[in-house]
Design brief:
The chain is α/β, with parallel strands linked by helices. The chain has helices at about 45-50, 55-70, 90-100, 145-150, 195-200, 220-225, 260-270, 300-315, 330-350, 360-375, 380-395, 405-420, 455-460, 490-505; strands spanning about 15-20, 80-85, 110-115, 155-160, 175, 180, 210-215, 230, 250-255, 280, 285-290, 315-320, 425-430, 465-475, 480-485. It starts with 16 loop residues before the first strand and ends in a 16-residue tail after the last helix.
């Protein structure tokens, strides 16, 4: 359904202003191909092409659907898409008609996106990857989806995900949608739980994706798909209409192929926060390199060393820090217990608002999951089932971890920023490359870290903003990411810094398994 217009009728797309020491601004790009291919195109390029009449919203939707058919269900069959929006082409036609009469609403006018399947989208069930929720239709769009639609974005499809946003080792697998594959190396995982959104954007099945992040669920998929993934300051974005895992940590976050694309999306999701307006430069920035997550994989360590070299060359002032031990085992010591205490309470509140047809509480959801397993349906991750069962059985049991512990961690993080006078803490998003799929071995994988995902838990526990951007590729062709943790509320400034790094290093590369369908790019 087309939502109310936003009063921004302009073909001008805001981009980060970028400064590289000794080099001019990069020129604007254009495309004169008669048969326009959105492969690897930025949001700005897509918007400009529509304004110039080189393409249309309907043509973009049609081409993305061709790519989904070619690569998601056929070819490499990455299985990133859980369900198509049956109204996408009709909505695109309406956006084209509006463009002709009124001009664009803004830079997202007619831009196709994918939405993680735990975010309410009107007219489509919110399955959260769970077969037991296949008939759980929401009453309305989640506010985050409503904002993007009001800005002109088109929901092309819902994206597959780790079931109930809890990967538990089975990254990208769900009983509703099966397993999402990593298009860069099909034997490796697509991370989670925003697995489908990451794989879809990496493979140019949509212009951008909307995911959720509790313990790395946006940043992990960004890391393993050579994308930019943004976890905003906790509370900046509205989580209403999102199937919850742990409200103390849950947040919506975008995935895109560039920081500028993320800025455009964030400017719609959080207007007036300065996204895309700050000068994107690294010269004179004071940044801290965190050394606590080294030693897991020599290639990741080497790529992180190249990050330091690039930052120095770009004019940043660097220091090296070690984190307090309280930050190094956060899930086992803190996050897991808080989640256990919050999960079913929040889940019950969400489920009771769904239309008839879906389970109305967590106990009924568990019952339906177990019925699906007994009837020979696709198996739900046993660890997720066990965790849900335990959360239900211990409902009402006070958490062994006090909320005050989260505040103390936040204070510790603030002390690091203030003591060293830095604008960001920088570390590998994951200490090791994407691990093998849970159902398939890969002899090229090497990891010595006991907790390769531990770094992503810092932002979750502290509520601070974190962005993962590409930092290169391993010899096996698997992308790696570097995370930037910023001060609370400094989201726009943090994104500007990562935009400068991204434009300086140019690490983004598309997967070879999902090439352009036509034309030159």
């Amino acid at each position: 359904m087309i939502k109310d217009r936003l009063p921004t009728p302009s073909c001008t797309v805001k981009m980060f202003r970028y400064s590289r020491p000794g080099t001019p601004m990069p020129p604007a790009t254009s495309d004169a191909n008669i048969e326009f291919d959105p492969f690897e195109r930025s949001i700005a390029e897509l918007a400009s092409a529509m304004c110039a009449g080189q393409t249309s919203a309907h043509a973009l939707v049609t081409t993305y659907l061709e790519r989904i058919n070619a690569f998601d269900k056929n070819g490499p069959a990455i299985n990133a898409i859980s369900q198509l929006n049956p109204m996408a082409q009709e909505e695109a036609t309406a956006m084209d008609n509006e463009m002709r009469v009124h001009g664009p609403r803004g830079p997202l006018h007619g831009i196709p996106m994918v939405v993680k399947d735990n975010i309410d989208t009107e007219g489509m069930p919110t399955t959260a990857g769970c077969l037991a929720l296949k008939n759980a239709f929401p009453n309305a769009d989640a506010p985050c989806v409503a904002r993007l639609r009001a800005a002109g974005a088109i929901v092309l499809a819902k994206a597959n995900m780790s079931e109930l946003a809890a990967s538990n080792g089975w990254f990208g697998y769900s009983s509703a949608g099966g397993l999402t594959l990593n298009p860069y190396r099909l034997s490796r995982n697509a991370s989670g739980s925003s697995s489908g959104a990451g794989a879809a954007v990496a493979a140019s099945l949509a212009a951008f994706g909307l995911g959720t992040d509790s313990f790395g669920s946006v940043r992990g998929p960004a890391c393993v798909h050579a994308l930019v993934g943004f976890r905003p300051t906790h509370g900046l974005l509205d989580n209403t209409g999102v199937l919850p895992l742990a409200p103390s940590f849950d947040t919506v976050g975008p995935l895109a192929r560039s920081a500028s694309d993320v800025a455009i999306v964030m400017d719609v999701l959080a207007p007036g926060q300065g996204f895309g307006l700050q000068f994107a430069t690294l010269a004179g920035r004071t940044l801290a390199l965190v050394s606590d997550f080294a030693g897991g994989n020599p290639e990741i360590d080497a790529l992180f060393g190249e990050v330091a070299t690039s930052l120095k060359y770009a004019g940043a002032k660097l220091c090296h820090v070690r984190l307090p031990t309280a930050f190094l085992n956060l899930y086992a010591e803190l996050l897991g217990e808080v989640t256990r205490a919050q999960w079913v309470v929040a889940l019950d509140q969400y489920l009771m608002q769904s239309e008839a047809g879906g389970p109305q509480n967590s106990a009924e959801l568990l019952e339906r999951i177990e019925e699906d397993i007994d009837s020979g349906g696709r198996q739900t991750n046993p660890r997720t089932v066990d965790a849900l069962r335990r959360a239900i059985e211990t409902r009402g049991m006070a958490s062994e971890v006090e909320e005050a512990a989260l505040r103390r961690l936040r204070a510790l993080a603030d002390d690091i920023f203030n003591t060293y006078g830095v604008e960001a803490l920088i570390y590998p998003t994951q200490a090791c490359p994407a691990s093998p799929r849970f159902d398939q071995a890969d002899s090229s994988y090497q990891c010595l870290a006991l907790q390769p995902l531990a770094a992503m838990h810092i932002a979750s526990a502290t509520g601070l903003p974190e962005i993962s951007v590409p930092m290169g590729f391993t010899r096996s062709g698997v992308p790696a990411g570097v995370s930037w943790l910023g001060r609370a509320g400094a989201d726009a400034s943090l994104l500007a810094m990562t935009a400068a790094f991204e434009q300086f290093t140019q690490h983004r590369q598309p997967p070879k398994s999902t090439p352009a369908l036509r034309g030159q790019v």
